Amino acid sequence: MWKYAAGSVVVGTALYGLIKYFAGGVCRCSARLDGQVIVITGANSGIGKALALELAKRGATLVLACRDTNKGLDAKTYILRQLKNENIKVFVKHLDLCSISSIRKFSVNLIHEFSEIYALVNNAAVFYHPQHLTEDEYEVTFQTNYLGHFILTHHLQTLLKNSVHGRIVNVASEAHRIVNVYDLNAVTKCQVEFRDHFIAYGVSKLALILFTRELSKRLRNTNIIVNAVNPGNVETSIFRNFPALCNPWLYALQWPIRLIIIKNPQQGAQTLLHALLTTNRSTGQYYSDCKLALPSPIAANDKIASEYYQLTLEILADKFNTESDC
Ligand SMILES: NC(=O)c1ccc[n+]([C@@H]2O[C@H](COP(=O)([O-])OP(=O)(O)OC[C@H]3O[C@@H](n4cnc5c(N)ncnc54)[C@H](OP(=O)(O)O)[C@@H]3O)[C@@H](O)[C@H]2O)c1
Protein backbone atom coordinates (compact mmCIF):
# COMPACT_ATOMS: atom_id res chain seq x y z
CA MET A 1 0.00 0.00 0.00
CA TRP A 2 2.76 2.43 0.94
CA LYS A 3 4.33 1.83 -2.49
CA TYR A 4 1.15 3.19 -4.18
CA ALA A 5 1.12 6.16 -1.82
CA ALA A 6 4.80 6.90 -2.50
CA GLY A 7 4.22 6.46 -6.27
CA SER A 8 1.27 8.90 -6.18
CA VAL A 9 3.35 11.48 -4.30
CA VAL A 10 6.21 11.18 -6.83
CA VAL A 11 3.86 11.46 -9.84
CA GLY A 12 1.92 14.32 -8.20
CA THR A 13 5.10 16.24 -7.39
CA ALA A 14 6.47 15.71 -10.90
CA LEU A 15 3.19 16.91 -12.47
CA TYR A 16 3.06 19.94 -10.19
CA GLY A 17 6.69 20.76 -11.07
CA LEU A 18 5.93 20.49 -14.80
CA ILE A 19 2.79 22.67 -14.54
CA LYS A 20 4.75 25.30 -12.58
CA TYR A 21 7.59 25.15 -15.10
CA PHE A 22 5.33 25.67 -18.12
CA ALA A 23 3.32 28.40 -16.35
CA GLY A 24 6.38 30.61 -16.94
CA GLY A 25 7.47 33.80 -15.20
CA VAL A 26 5.35 35.71 -12.72
CA CYS A 27 5.33 39.51 -12.54
CA ARG A 28 6.57 40.47 -9.06
CA CYS A 29 6.22 44.25 -9.51
CA SER A 30 4.01 45.70 -6.80
CA ALA A 31 3.58 49.17 -8.37
CA ARG A 32 0.08 50.65 -8.45
CA LEU A 33 -1.39 52.50 -11.41
CA ASP A 34 -4.16 54.47 -9.77
CA GLY A 35 -5.97 56.60 -12.34
CA GLN A 36 -3.41 55.90 -15.09
CA VAL A 37 -5.13 55.38 -18.44
CA ILE A 38 -4.20 52.19 -20.28
CA VAL A 39 -5.54 51.30 -23.72
CA ILE A 40 -5.64 47.59 -24.61
CA THR A 41 -6.59 46.41 -28.09
CA GLY A 42 -8.48 43.11 -28.26
CA ALA A 43 -9.26 43.35 -24.55
CA ASN A 44 -12.50 41.38 -24.65
CA SER A 45 -10.91 37.95 -24.52
CA GLY A 46 -7.87 35.84 -23.71
CA ILE A 47 -4.65 37.55 -22.65
CA GLY A 48 -6.02 41.09 -23.18
CA LYS A 49 -8.97 40.48 -20.85
CA ALA A 50 -6.76 38.81 -18.22
CA LEU A 51 -4.35 41.76 -18.42
CA ALA A 52 -7.21 44.22 -18.07
CA LEU A 53 -8.29 42.51 -14.84
CA GLU A 54 -4.74 42.57 -13.43
CA LEU A 55 -4.40 46.27 -14.26
CA ALA A 56 -7.81 47.11 -12.80
CA LYS A 57 -6.68 45.42 -9.55
CA ARG A 58 -3.83 47.95 -9.52
CA GLY A 59 -6.21 50.89 -9.93
CA ALA A 60 -5.68 51.66 -13.65
CA THR A 61 -8.37 53.34 -15.75
CA LEU A 62 -8.95 51.05 -18.70
CA VAL A 63 -9.95 51.57 -22.29
CA LEU A 64 -11.00 48.23 -23.77
CA ALA A 65 -10.61 48.66 -27.52
CA CYS A 66 -12.76 45.98 -29.16
CA ARG A 67 -14.17 45.34 -32.61
CA ASP A 68 -17.33 43.90 -31.02
CA THR A 69 -18.50 46.33 -28.33
CA ASN A 70 -20.99 43.79 -26.89
CA LYS A 71 -18.10 41.44 -26.15
CA GLY A 72 -16.24 44.44 -24.70
CA LEU A 73 -19.18 45.25 -22.42
CA ASP A 74 -19.27 41.59 -21.24
CA ALA A 75 -15.56 41.86 -20.40
CA LYS A 76 -16.19 45.11 -18.52
CA THR A 77 -18.99 43.45 -16.50
CA TYR A 78 -16.68 40.50 -15.73
CA ILE A 79 -13.87 42.80 -14.54
CA LEU A 80 -16.13 44.94 -12.36
CA ARG A 81 -17.76 41.83 -10.84
CA GLN A 82 -14.37 40.35 -9.99
CA LEU A 83 -13.24 43.54 -8.27
CA LYS A 84 -16.43 44.67 -6.56
CA ASN A 85 -14.85 48.14 -6.67
CA GLU A 86 -17.01 50.95 -8.02
CA ASN A 87 -14.08 53.33 -8.26
CA ILE A 88 -12.43 51.47 -11.12
CA LYS A 89 -13.15 53.12 -14.45
CA VAL A 90 -13.51 50.87 -17.49
CA PHE A 91 -14.43 52.31 -20.89
CA VAL A 92 -15.40 50.16 -23.86
CA LYS A 93 -14.66 51.68 -27.26
CA HIS A 94 -15.11 50.39 -30.77
CA LEU A 95 -11.92 49.70 -32.71
CA ASP A 96 -11.61 47.57 -35.82
CA LEU A 97 -7.94 47.31 -36.76
CA CYS A 98 -8.96 46.13 -40.23
CA SER A 99 -10.29 49.59 -40.98
CA ILE A 100 -8.06 52.68 -41.07
CA SER A 101 -11.16 54.84 -40.78
CA SER A 102 -12.16 52.99 -37.57
CA ILE A 103 -8.64 53.48 -36.17
CA ARG A 104 -8.91 57.22 -36.93
CA LYS A 105 -12.34 57.54 -35.30
CA PHE A 106 -11.18 55.64 -32.23
CA SER A 107 -8.08 57.84 -31.89
CA VAL A 108 -9.99 61.11 -32.35
CA ASN A 109 -12.49 59.99 -29.71
CA LEU A 110 -9.68 59.20 -27.27
CA ILE A 111 -7.95 62.54 -27.94
CA HIS A 112 -11.23 64.33 -27.09
CA GLU A 113 -11.84 62.28 -23.97
CA PHE A 114 -8.40 62.03 -22.36
CA SER A 115 -5.58 64.52 -21.93
CA GLU A 116 -2.96 61.78 -21.54
CA ILE A 117 -2.54 58.02 -21.59
CA TYR A 118 0.04 56.06 -19.64
CA ALA A 119 0.19 53.02 -21.89
CA LEU A 120 -0.95 51.49 -25.14
CA VAL A 121 -0.98 47.69 -25.33
CA ASN A 122 -1.08 46.50 -28.94
CA ASN A 123 -2.49 43.08 -28.14
CA ALA A 124 -5.22 42.22 -30.68
CA ALA A 125 -4.40 39.62 -33.31
CA VAL A 126 -5.70 36.87 -35.53
CA PHE A 127 -4.04 33.54 -36.33
CA TYR A 128 -4.86 31.22 -39.23
CA HIS A 129 -7.57 33.66 -40.29
CA PRO A 130 -9.13 32.90 -43.69
CA GLN A 131 -7.13 35.13 -46.00
CA HIS A 132 -8.82 38.06 -47.72
CA LEU A 133 -8.21 41.74 -48.30
CA THR A 134 -9.52 44.33 -45.83
CA GLU A 135 -11.48 47.42 -46.92
CA ASP A 136 -8.07 49.17 -47.08
CA GLU A 137 -6.78 46.40 -49.38
CA TYR A 138 -4.24 44.79 -47.09
CA GLU A 139 -4.13 41.13 -46.13
CA VAL A 140 -6.25 40.66 -43.03
CA THR A 141 -3.62 39.10 -40.70
CA PHE A 142 -1.04 41.69 -41.72
CA GLN A 143 -3.36 44.65 -41.11
CA THR A 144 -4.88 43.34 -37.86
CA ASN A 145 -1.65 42.27 -36.21
CA TYR A 146 0.76 44.86 -37.56
CA LEU A 147 -0.36 47.71 -39.84
CA GLY A 148 -3.40 48.62 -37.73
CA HIS A 149 -1.23 48.85 -34.62
CA PHE A 150 1.44 50.80 -36.51
CA ILE A 151 -1.16 53.46 -37.41
CA LEU A 152 -2.87 53.43 -34.01
CA THR A 153 0.46 53.91 -32.23
CA HIS A 154 1.26 56.99 -34.30
CA HIS A 155 -2.20 58.47 -33.72
CA LEU A 156 -1.89 58.05 -29.94
CA GLN A 157 1.69 59.28 -29.57
CA THR A 158 0.71 62.79 -28.50
CA LEU A 159 -1.44 61.41 -25.67
CA LEU A 160 1.42 59.11 -24.61
CA LYS A 161 3.86 62.02 -24.69
CA ASN A 162 1.56 63.97 -22.35
CA SER A 163 2.01 61.29 -19.69
CA VAL A 164 5.02 61.52 -17.36
CA HIS A 165 6.16 58.02 -18.35
CA GLY A 166 4.49 56.63 -21.47
CA ARG A 167 4.76 52.98 -22.45
CA ILE A 168 3.93 51.03 -25.57
CA VAL A 169 3.77 47.24 -25.35
CA ASN A 170 3.60 45.30 -28.61
CA VAL A 171 2.41 41.73 -28.13
CA ALA A 172 4.59 39.57 -30.35
CA SER A 173 5.22 35.83 -30.49
CA GLU A 174 7.99 33.29 -30.84
CA ALA A 175 6.45 32.60 -34.27
CA HIS A 176 8.53 35.55 -35.53
CA ARG A 177 11.51 33.17 -35.57
CA ILE A 178 10.20 31.12 -38.51
CA VAL A 179 10.41 34.09 -40.90
CA ASN A 180 13.38 34.84 -43.15
CA VAL A 181 14.10 38.18 -44.84
CA TYR A 182 12.79 36.92 -48.18
CA ASP A 183 9.36 36.02 -46.70
CA LEU A 184 9.26 39.23 -44.69
CA ASN A 185 9.69 41.39 -47.80
CA ALA A 186 7.61 39.20 -50.10
CA VAL A 187 4.58 39.12 -47.78
CA THR A 188 4.85 42.85 -47.06
CA LYS A 189 5.24 43.98 -50.66
CA CYS A 190 2.63 41.70 -52.19
CA GLN A 191 -0.56 41.82 -50.14
CA VAL A 192 -2.73 40.05 -52.73
CA GLU A 193 -0.72 36.85 -52.98
CA PHE A 194 -1.93 34.60 -50.19
CA ARG A 195 0.59 32.55 -48.25
CA ASP A 196 0.98 29.86 -45.66
CA HIS A 197 -1.03 30.96 -42.59
CA PHE A 198 1.82 30.36 -40.22
CA ILE A 199 4.21 32.47 -42.31
CA ALA A 200 1.58 35.23 -42.54
CA TYR A 201 1.28 35.26 -38.73
CA GLY A 202 5.06 35.04 -38.23
CA VAL A 203 5.63 37.98 -40.60
CA SER A 204 3.09 40.12 -38.73
CA LYS A 205 4.83 39.40 -35.42
CA LEU A 206 8.34 39.93 -36.79
CA ALA A 207 7.09 43.22 -38.24
CA LEU A 208 5.86 44.26 -34.77
CA ILE A 209 9.25 43.53 -33.20
CA LEU A 210 11.10 45.45 -35.93
CA PHE A 211 8.63 48.32 -35.41
CA THR A 212 9.37 48.21 -31.67
CA ARG A 213 13.08 48.49 -32.35
CA GLU A 214 12.89 51.36 -34.83
CA LEU A 215 10.22 53.26 -32.90
CA SER A 216 12.31 53.10 -29.72
CA LYS A 217 15.06 54.93 -31.61
CA ARG A 218 12.66 57.52 -33.00
CA LEU A 219 11.29 58.12 -29.48
CA ARG A 220 14.75 58.19 -27.89
CA ASN A 221 14.40 61.76 -26.64
CA THR A 222 10.89 61.40 -25.31
CA ASN A 223 9.31 59.97 -22.15
CA ILE A 224 7.95 56.95 -24.05
CA ILE A 225 9.46 53.49 -23.89
CA VAL A 226 8.36 50.78 -26.29
CA ASN A 227 8.93 47.06 -25.89
CA ALA A 228 7.77 43.82 -27.48
CA VAL A 229 6.52 40.91 -25.41
CA ASN A 230 6.13 37.19 -25.99
CA PRO A 231 3.29 35.87 -23.79
CA GLY A 232 4.18 32.19 -24.39
CA ASN A 233 1.71 29.47 -25.38
CA VAL A 234 -1.65 30.37 -23.92
CA GLU A 235 -5.07 28.68 -24.04
CA THR A 236 -7.24 31.29 -25.79
CA SER A 237 -9.64 31.69 -28.68
CA ILE A 238 -6.81 32.74 -31.01
CA PHE A 239 -6.70 29.10 -32.12
CA ARG A 240 -10.33 29.20 -33.31
CA ASN A 241 -9.30 28.67 -36.95
CA PHE A 242 -6.25 26.46 -36.35
CA PRO A 243 -7.09 23.01 -37.82
CA ALA A 244 -5.32 20.97 -35.12
CA LEU A 245 -7.31 22.69 -32.35
CA CYS A 246 -10.68 23.72 -33.78
CA ASN A 247 -11.60 20.06 -34.36
CA PRO A 248 -13.17 18.93 -31.01
CA TRP A 249 -11.82 15.35 -31.35
CA LEU A 250 -8.27 16.46 -32.03
CA TYR A 251 -8.56 18.98 -29.21
CA ALA A 252 -9.81 16.33 -26.76
CA LEU A 253 -6.83 14.11 -27.64
CA GLN A 254 -4.38 16.92 -26.83
CA TRP A 255 -6.26 18.24 -23.81
CA PRO A 256 -4.38 16.35 -21.02
CA ILE A 257 -1.02 17.51 -22.40
CA ARG A 258 -2.28 21.05 -22.99
CA LEU A 259 -3.42 21.21 -19.39
CA ILE A 260 0.22 20.79 -18.36
CA ILE A 261 2.19 22.70 -20.97
CA ILE A 262 -0.11 25.58 -22.00
CA LYS A 263 -0.55 28.69 -19.85
CA ASN A 264 -3.93 30.02 -18.83
CA PRO A 265 -4.68 33.65 -19.86
CA GLN A 266 -3.74 35.03 -16.44
CA GLN A 267 -0.33 33.35 -16.71
CA GLY A 268 -0.05 34.58 -20.31
CA ALA A 269 -0.66 38.16 -19.17
CA GLN A 270 2.30 38.17 -16.72
CA THR A 271 5.00 39.32 -19.15
CA LEU A 272 2.74 42.09 -20.50
CA LEU A 273 2.13 43.20 -16.93
CA HIS A 274 5.86 43.11 -16.24
CA ALA A 275 6.59 45.31 -19.27
CA LEU A 276 4.00 47.82 -18.02
CA LEU A 277 5.18 47.90 -14.42
CA THR A 278 8.92 47.28 -14.34
CA THR A 279 11.13 50.13 -13.18
CA ASN A 280 13.64 49.07 -15.83
CA ARG A 281 13.19 51.74 -18.48
CA SER A 282 15.13 50.00 -21.25
CA THR A 283 13.41 50.41 -24.59
CA GLY A 284 13.27 48.60 -27.93
CA GLN A 285 13.61 45.27 -26.15
CA TYR A 286 11.94 41.85 -26.33
CA TYR A 287 10.57 40.32 -23.12
CA SER A 288 9.70 36.68 -22.53
CA ASP A 289 8.69 35.09 -19.22
CA CYS A 290 9.07 38.44 -17.41
CA LYS A 291 12.72 38.75 -18.44
CA LEU A 292 14.60 40.45 -21.23
CA ALA A 293 15.21 37.95 -24.03
CA LEU A 294 16.89 37.88 -27.42
CA PRO A 295 14.61 37.88 -30.46
CA SER A 296 15.73 36.29 -33.75
CA PRO A 297 18.82 37.82 -35.44
CA ILE A 298 16.57 39.45 -38.07
CA ALA A 299 14.38 41.01 -35.37
CA ALA A 300 17.47 42.35 -33.61
CA ASN A 301 18.93 43.94 -36.75
CA ASP A 302 18.78 47.76 -36.58
CA LYS A 303 19.34 48.20 -40.33
CA ILE A 304 16.47 45.85 -41.22
CA ALA A 305 14.27 47.58 -38.62
CA SER A 306 14.96 51.00 -40.09
CA GLU A 307 14.40 49.84 -43.70
CA TYR A 308 11.23 47.98 -42.71
CA TYR A 309 9.78 51.13 -41.11
CA GLN A 310 10.32 52.95 -44.43
CA LEU A 311 8.81 50.05 -46.37
CA THR A 312 5.75 50.18 -44.10
CA LEU A 313 5.30 53.88 -44.87
CA GLU A 314 5.66 53.10 -48.57
CA ILE A 315 3.01 50.39 -48.58
CA LEU A 316 0.68 52.67 -46.61
CA ALA A 317 1.33 55.32 -49.29
CA ASP A 318 -1.46 57.91 -49.32
CA LYS A 319 -3.53 56.05 -46.71
CA PHE A 320 -1.39 57.21 -43.80
CA ASN A 321 1.27 59.83 -43.32
CA THR A 322 3.12 60.30 -40.03
CA GLU A 323 3.39 64.06 -40.69
CA SER A 324 -0.20 64.92 -41.56
CA ASP A 325 -2.14 62.14 -39.80
CA CYS A 326 -0.75 62.49 -36.30
N1 LIG B 1 -2.44 32.44 -27.24
C1 LIG B 1 -1.18 32.20 -27.54
O1 LIG B 1 -0.68 31.06 -27.41
C2 LIG B 1 -0.30 33.31 -28.02
C3 LIG B 1 1.05 33.03 -28.27
C4 LIG B 1 1.88 34.06 -28.71
C5 LIG B 1 1.36 35.32 -28.89
N2 LIG B 1 0.03 35.56 -28.66
C6 LIG B 1 -0.46 36.91 -28.88
O2 LIG B 1 -1.21 37.34 -27.76
C7 LIG B 1 -2.15 38.34 -28.18
C8 LIG B 1 -3.51 38.06 -27.59
O3 LIG B 1 -4.04 36.89 -28.18
P1 LIG B 1 -4.94 35.84 -27.39
O4 LIG B 1 -4.20 34.58 -27.37
O5 LIG B 1 -5.43 36.42 -26.14
O6 LIG B 1 -6.13 35.64 -28.45
P2 LIG B 1 -7.67 36.02 -28.42
O7 LIG B 1 -8.31 35.60 -27.16
O8 LIG B 1 -8.24 35.51 -29.70
O9 LIG B 1 -7.62 37.62 -28.45
C9 LIG B 1 -7.41 38.33 -29.63
C10 LIG B 1 -8.22 39.60 -29.55
O10 LIG B 1 -7.99 40.36 -30.74
C11 LIG B 1 -9.24 40.84 -31.18
N3 LIG B 1 -9.23 41.19 -32.61
C12 LIG B 1 -9.08 40.36 -33.66
N4 LIG B 1 -9.21 41.06 -34.81
C13 LIG B 1 -9.42 42.35 -34.47
C14 LIG B 1 -9.64 43.54 -35.21
N5 LIG B 1 -9.69 43.56 -36.55
N6 LIG B 1 -9.82 44.69 -34.54
C15 LIG B 1 -9.81 44.72 -33.18
N7 LIG B 1 -9.62 43.61 -32.43
C16 LIG B 1 -9.44 42.44 -33.07
C17 LIG B 1 -10.20 39.72 -30.89
O11 LIG B 1 -11.55 40.19 -30.96
P3 LIG B 1 -12.78 39.15 -31.15
O12 LIG B 1 -13.01 38.51 -29.82
O13 LIG B 1 -13.91 40.03 -31.59
O14 LIG B 1 -12.34 38.16 -32.19
C18 LIG B 1 -9.74 39.35 -29.49
O15 LIG B 1 -10.30 40.22 -28.55
C19 LIG B 1 -2.11 38.33 -29.71
O16 LIG B 1 -1.29 39.38 -30.15
C20 LIG B 1 -1.43 37.01 -30.04
O17 LIG B 1 -0.77 37.03 -31.29
C21 LIG B 1 -0.80 34.59 -28.23
TrEMBL record:
<dbReference type="InterPro" id="IPR036291">
    <property type="entry name" value="NAD(P)-bd_dom_sf"/>
</dbReference>
<protein>
    <submittedName>
        <fullName>Uncharacterized protein</fullName>
    </submittedName>
</protein>
<dbReference type="InterPro" id="IPR002347">
    <property type="entry name" value="SDR_fam"/>
</dbReference>
<dbReference type="Pfam" id="PF00106">
    <property type="entry name" value="adh_short"/>
</dbReference>
<dbReference type="GO" id="GO:0016491">
    <property type="term" value="F:oxidoreductase activity"/>
</dbReference>
<comment type="similarity">
    <text>Belongs to the short-chain dehydrogenases/reductases (SDR) family.</text>
</comment>
<keyword id="KW-0560">Oxidoreductase</keyword>
